């Protein structure tokens, strides 16, 4: 095998910088670059890409069409020296070609004809499709190209909770670290499927992305495939890289082992010195090269210290928020440690391991004020002359404020950044906390036939669920807590009365009259009437209700705090209701995810409606 390599001096191979007792080491080992006949420059590679596309029932309509269009756009962006193949997976897998074909115009045109014949249907069986792709790649034995698989799917029904780890290990063992596997989760993907695709990609040197906007798939999918190709070059780099240090010299090291390394990356190790920082740090590096030869040698690298009046002073001024003991390398050590703990957590094979890694990451996050998925902090943008705007001037234009009148600086910090902020709460944070504490959910019982309406969890739009009359009929306890209860009388698909019991009072609202303790009256301390609207709320509760009298029926709308209210309405609010995507050009229909099922909804006025036959799942 012919390849060339750059010669690195000991100075630019590894560098070590120290600040007090903490240090960071960057290493960039020389990686051989293949010389292929089909490329003009050293370091460029050809690829053999197999796309596995989900054609199950959940890919109905525009989702499958957008995925196919994006796949074809990705094929058009391949080099003619690249090979490709396509596997369709649903009830059974179908393969475009028994062997990968060059990405020529003729082959892509054939692929387009084949893709146009695909139809959705059946249950997703992506794992079978991936195993088929692995088998064909292995059988081809193409050593000139980097092999990779790209999955396009919205669910992985054959990777259930019971066989999650088994399926993950089975595919990873088949790929045997020789094939890069990446995933494009198209449209809405349930949590379990998304976690599986993430772990599968991480285990097999790939990337995972979630794609939601169907209208942009033709642009986004080629862009993601290009990034996946570049990332997969690790299959042509070093593997099993390991650094060994003297435990009497350093401690509390971040990861010192790396599964792979590609030219252009950095191998980063952070840690603490035991005692005073030495002038040189000695360590051993070991790895396997592209021909699987084991390479091992020792290095001694001079330690560079931060200049307290130069580079270090600039870093502290930028990020420290006037912390007297701020140490940028210590902070980066903590951030890296949290990141690596979370990465190991994603690969945990038992609940106890998962919980312990979560505990360690949370402890470090709180200690060093790092925003991470296991803790919560408020993120704020800095106020500066660059983003503060004065009112319009005499010419009607708005200008940036001068630095002299800029408001006081606020520190913005986020996960994997070195920025810090004070523990003290200002008025902005207090307001944000109050807003969070008063987070109410909107719900309604309206219309004829009667429908339950709520806002979709990932959209500003509403979903209207038609209520089956055979199930939702008679007196229904709509909402209650220790202080009051609200009962609805539902007859012949209509809400005909609402009864409120509070303390020792009973208030009944019909389409014509309000009764208080059996006598007609609109006077009660917790009621407010306004033409055909009756408002009900009590000072001690955050939730509130409004009844609208309409001819022979009533409509009820509510703002509900799920922590203080139980009953029929809160139970429906707890049902997962998500917009998957709008699936027609004029957006007359949409695919929703309700109660664990894909359901087709139709737009009526300002709501996505599901008919009673489709909402039976809520009352099973």
TrEMBL record:
The lineage of its organism: Eukaryota, Metazoa, Chordata, Tunicata, Appendicularia. This is VWFA domain-containing protein. Residues 48-228 form the VWFA domain.
